[in-house]
Design brief:
The chain is an alpha/beta fold and 644 residues long. It has 19 helices and 25 strands. 41% of the residues lie in helices and 17% in strands. The termini are far apart. The relative contact order is 0.09.
C-alpha cells in the first residue's frame, strides 16, 4: 500500500546576505513538522532553497566587485551551511539560478501571456528595493515601506502585468470555502480586509531597469520579476512544466503542497499572488499557508544597522544544535512574535533541558544500574501515582499530534516536556531510594523504574522531531530501539530484562554569569575586528582635526602577494606624484572594478609597511555590517579636491 504523501516547504531565502537566526527559525520549524510527519508514516517531501535574482542582488554584486552569480553562489553556500548546522532534513535545496528552473519559468511566463493573463503595460509607483515590492502612497507608513520601514523610490517603467483582478472573485470563494487555507486567523483577516476588499490591482511581473533575472524569452529587454520567479519554485522543484504532458512523477505525486511555511511579512504574496498564478495555470492550490511570527531580539526586530543581529551558527557553537532547535520550537508562540536573548536561551536550557529532561534520564538510568545491575525490571505491581503518570504520557501523544497539525509547535514541545515534569514528580512521590532499602518493596521499586524508563521512551520518541541527536542519545542510554509511532498507542512496549546503558549527562548545566561574560567578550572581539580592517592605519580622536582628505583617482590596482585581504592601489591625488596605498578591501572588490574610480584618501598619514609594501595613506570605506564593507566613491569630483 502506498504511503500518504506530505509536501511541505519553507519560503526560499533571499541571497542578499547571510540570514540571521530569525530567518533560520523557519527552516527549524518546518523541519520539526517534516520529521514528525515522517515518524507518523507519511511519505514526506520537504523543500527549501534560495531566491537569487533581483535588483538588490545586482547592486550588491556590483558593490562587491563580483558577478551576480559569484555573489549568490557565496551566500547560497552560507544558507545551505546554516541548514546543516541546525540539523535540518530537507529533501531538496532549490535554487532559482538552476537551469531547469529558469527554463520552466520562461515557459510559465509565455503560457500566461499567450492566454491573456499577462499583458504588456507600464508601471508608475513607489518601489522598495530591499522588499522588491511596489506600493501605493496610501500603503506607505510615514512615507516609507510598510514592510521594512526603508525609503521607497518613484518608478516609472514599461513592464508586463498579471491580471490579478480577473481571479479575485475565484480567490475570495476559495478562501471562504477553505477557512484554514490562510493560517492563523489574524493573517487571513489582514489579507481579506486590507487587500481583497479594497480590490486587487494588476501585478507587475517583469522589470526592464536591471538585468539580473530570468529573461522573458520573447522580449529579452525584460526579466521575469521576483514573484513569478520565486513563488513558482514550489512547482518547478517538483518537475512541473506548463506543457502538462511533461510533468514529472514528483509533481504528480506531491502537488498540491500540504503546507507552505512562511514569514508573516510575505503572506500577501503567498495567499494572493501565488494562488492566482496557480488558478491561471489551472493547478490546484496549496492546502494551507502558515504565516509564522518573527523572532525578535528582546523586543526589537533584528537589523545590522542596530547591531543586534544574531546568527544560528554562533548560537550552535555556544549551546549546540539541539538546544537552539528546542529554544526556537518551544519559545516562539503560534501567532505572536517571539523573543530571543542570550539570557532567555540559558534560562530555558537550564530549566528544561538540563534540570527537567537531563536530570530525569540521568538519575533513572543511574538507579536502574544501581538497584538492578542495569536490567530493566519487570512491571509486576501497581501502586499509587502509576496510573496518572501513564495517562499523562499517553495523553501527550494526542496532544502533540493535534498541536503539530495546527502548527502550534511551542505547545507541542511543552506537551512533551510536561511528561518529563510529571515523571520527575513521580520520582519524588514514589521515592525509589527509600524503596531500595527494604527487600519487601523490591517489586514496587521495579514497577517504579519500569514506568520511568517507559515514560522516558515516550519522551525520546516524540522529541526526535525536535531534538534529533539528543533523542537518539536518550534511547541509547535506556538501550531501546522501539521508536515507531504506533508503539506510543499503549504504555508498556519497552522490553523487560534488557540492560540500560551508562548514565551520561545530556545537557551540562550552564553557569549563567560565566557564559554571558564569554559571549560579551566574543562580541567585543568581533566589534574590534570589524574596526581594525587590515591595511588601514589608525589615528586618535585628538588628531582628527589635522586629517587632510583629498580626492584621488585609482590609476592601478594589484593584489599584495601572500595577503588575501590586501590590494595595492596606485593613486593620482593631484599632487603631481603618484601615491601608493595598501587597503584591506580585497574580499569586497576586485582590481578591475576599482581602476579609474575616484575615492577619498587620508593624505597626511605616516607611512606604514604592510606585507613588504609601503602604504602612504588610507582610503575611506564604510563598515555596513558583518562581511559588508563599501568604499566611498566620488567619481563626480575632480582629482585633488579637498574634502571639508
Amino acid at each position: 500500500m502506498n504511503k500518504k504523501t506530505y509536501y511541505i516547504t519553507t519560503a526560499i531565502a533571499y541571497t542578499s546576505q547571510k540570514p540571521h537566526i530569525g530567518n533560520s527559525y523557519e527552516i527549524v520549524l518546518t523541519d520539526a513538522v517534516a520529521r514528525f510527519k515522517r515518524m507518523q508514516g507519511y511519505d514526506v517531501f520537504f523543500m527549501t532553497g534560495t531566491d537569487e535574482h533581483g535588483q538588490k542582488i545586482e547592486n550588491k554584486a556590483k558593490e562587491a566587485g563580483v558577478s551576480p552569480q559569484e555573489y549568490v553562489d557565496k551566500v547560497a553556500g552560507e544558507i545551505r551551511s546554516l541548514c546543516g548546522c541546525l540539523n535540518t532534513s530537507y529533501d531538496k535545496f532549490m535554487r532559482t539560478t538552476d537551469e531547469g528552473h529558469k527554463k520552466v519559468i520562461q515557459k510559465i511566463f509565455r503560457k500566461l501571456y499567450e492566454q491573456g493573463d499577462i499583458y504588456k503595460g507600464s508601471y508608475k509607483g513607489l518601489y522598495c528595493i530591499p522588499c522588491e515590492s511596489f506600493f501605493t502612497p496610501s500603503q506607505l507608513i510615514d512615507g516609507k515601506c510598510p514592510d521594512c520601514g526603508r525609503e521607497v523610490n518613484e518608478t516609472n517603467e514599461e513592464c508586463y502585468l498579471l491580471r490579478l483582478s480577473k481571479y479575485q472573485k475565484q480567490l475570495e470563494e476559495h478562501i471562504e470555502k477553505n477557512p484554514d487555507f490562510i493560517y492563523p486567523e489574524s493573517r487571513k483577516k489582514e489579507m481579506v480586509n486590507n487587500f481583497l476588499k479594497p480590490g486587487l490591482q494588476d501585478l507587475c511581473v517583469s522589470r526592464s531597469s536591471f538585468k539580473w533575472g530570468i529573461p522573458v524569452d520573447f522580449d529579452p529587454e525584460h526579466v521575469v520579476y521576483v514573484w513569478i520567479d520565486a513563488l513558482s519554485n514550489y512547482i518547478t522543484g517538483l518537475g512541473y512544466s506548463p506543457d502538462g504532458c511533461e510533468n514529472g512523477d514528483m509533481f504528480n505525486k506531491y502537488w498540491p503542497a500540504d503546507a507552505h511555511m512562511i514569514g508573516k511579512d510575505i503572506v500577501r504574496q503567498h495567499t494572493i499572488y501565488w494562488p492566482i498564478m496557480l488558478m491561471a495555470l489551472g493547478l490546484p492550490l496549496p492546502k494551507q499557508v502558515y504565516g509564522h511570527p518573527w523572532v525578535l531580539v528582546g523586543g526589537d526586530k533584528m537589523s545590522k544597522s542596530t547591531g543586534n543581529v544574531i546568527y544560528a551558527d554562533d548560537l550552535v557553537r555556544l549551546f549546540g544544535a539541539d538546544a537552539i532547535r528546542y529554544y526556537l520550537l518551544s519559545e516562539i508562540p503560534f501567532a505572536q512574535d517571539g523573543s530571543l536573548t542570550y539570557e532567555t536561551i540559558i534560562e530555558r536550557y537550564n530549566s528544561d533541558l538540563a534540570n527537567t529532561l537531563g536530570n530525569l534520564v540521568n538519575r533513572t538510568v543511574a538507579m536502574a544500574n544501581k538497584y538492578f545491575d542495569g536490567a530493566i525490571p519487570c512491571n509486576t505491581a501497581s501502586g499509587e501515582f502509576d496510573d496518572d503518570l501513564k495517562s499523562v504520557a499517553l495523553a501527550s501523544v494526542k496532544e502533540v499530534e493535534k498541536y503539530i497539525d495546527a502548527f502550534q509547535i511551542s505547545k507541542a514541545a511543552n506537551a512533551i516536556m510536561n511528561v518529563a515534569k510529571r515523571a520527575n514528580k513521580y520520582i519524588d512521590e514514589t521515592m525509589p531510594w527509600v524503596l531500595a532499602k527494604n527487600e519487601s518493596d523490591r517489586d514496587r521499586l521495579a514497577t517504579v523504574l519500569y514506568n520511568l524508563i517507559e515514560s522516558i521512551r515516550f519522551i525520546a520518541v516524540q522529541l526526535s522531531a525536535f531534538l534529533p541527536d539528543n533523542s537518539k542519545e536518550i534511547l541509547s542510554q535506556i538501550n531501546c530501539d522501539i521508536t515507531d509511532y504506533e508503539s506510543l498507542n499503549a504504555f508498556g512496549a519497552i522490553p523487560l530484562g534488557s540492560k540500560v546503558g551508562e548514565a551520561k549527562p545530556l545537557f551540562a548545566r550552564i553557569e549563567t554569569e560565566k557564559m554571558l561574560e564569554q559571549i560579551k567578550a566574543e562580541l567585543e572581539e568581533k566589534s574590534k575586528a570589524k574596526t581594525e580592517i587590515p591595511g588601514i592605519a589608525q589615528i586618535g580622536i585628538e588628531d582628527f582635526a589635522k586629517v587632510e582628505l583629498k580626492v584621488a583617482e585609482i590609476l592601478d590596482c594589484v593584489p599584495v602577494e601572500k595577503a588575501k585581504k590586501l590590494l595595492k592601489l596606485t593613486l593620482d591625488d593631484g599632487s603631481g606624484t603618484e601615491r601608493t596605498v595598501v587597503s584591506g578591501i580585497a574580499p569586497w572588490y576586485s582590481p578591475e572594478n576599482l581602476k579609474g574610480r575616484r575615492i577619498i584618501v587620508v593624505a597626511n598619514l605616516k607611512p606604514a609597511v604592510l606585507r613588504g609594501v609601503e602604504s602612504n595613506g588610507m582610503i575611506l570605506a564604510g563598515d555596513c555590517g558583518e562581511d559588508d564593507v563599501k568604499v566611498v566613491f566620488v567619481d563626480e569630483m575632480p582629482v585633488g579636491a579637498k574634502i571639508r
